[in-house]
User: Fold this.
Amino acid sequence: MTEAPDARSLELAHRLAAVQQRIATAAGAAGREGSLPVLIVVTKFHPAEDIRRLAVLGVTDVGENRDQEASAKARELADCGLTWHFVGQLQSKKAKSVLRYAAAVHSVDRPQLVDALAKAAQAERDMTGRAPLDCFIQVNLDDRAGDAGAHRGGAVPDDVLPLAERIATAAGLELAGVMAVAPLGTRPEAAFERLARVSARLVAEHPGGTAISAGMSQDLEAAIAHGATHLRIGSDILGSRPAVG
Ligand SMILES: *Cc1c(COP(=O)(O)O)cnc(C)c1O
Assistant:
């Protein structure tokens, strides 16, 4: 016997459909009807019950930005068959934990982190036979010096190729492509255009690294116009994030 959907499920269904419509419209405008980007629903700060509701609605990919919260949710929702994406700044000492549940890390931005992920991936593979970890190199597109640019993380564009080489030669890692967050206070179109150029340079050296993780609630249209293959959408689907106490 299936229960009638609760009010929150109906709300999520409505918001999810609206975002899917925006994606379809933007993909149509870009002539990309045949290759829609992967929708990753970023569920940080929202309860596991909401993720379960989204899975019932057909969501397959979810994103989280803190290991403690993500690992607990992944454990609780192990029966949902979800693909977990880690999208937040990551300390090397958390690599081992992240490898237990994440299929992809979108925030790889320094050699030490690559080495920690590679070591953890190898160990996890020996224990469970897990697939290689998909690695997105996070690119910092903010040229402003100091804290304004630094707080969103990412490697400077010139460091992308050396990082890619390090990922490509690590046994348990797979180079997926690039990721970026559009800098605050700038036009997302310009940022994503620049990301597309960084991606093209990467693909010239690593033909398999074609993924572009870009586009959030506010700027998914600009990201799709500039070739995003993975969107990371939170608030427009889940609503504003609950205050954490
Ligand atoms: C929270 C978050 C998102 C989702 O942002 P919204 O504006 O809520 O859509 C995407 N990417 C990263 C890295 C995030 O931390």
About this structure: The two ends are 37 Å apart (CA to CA).
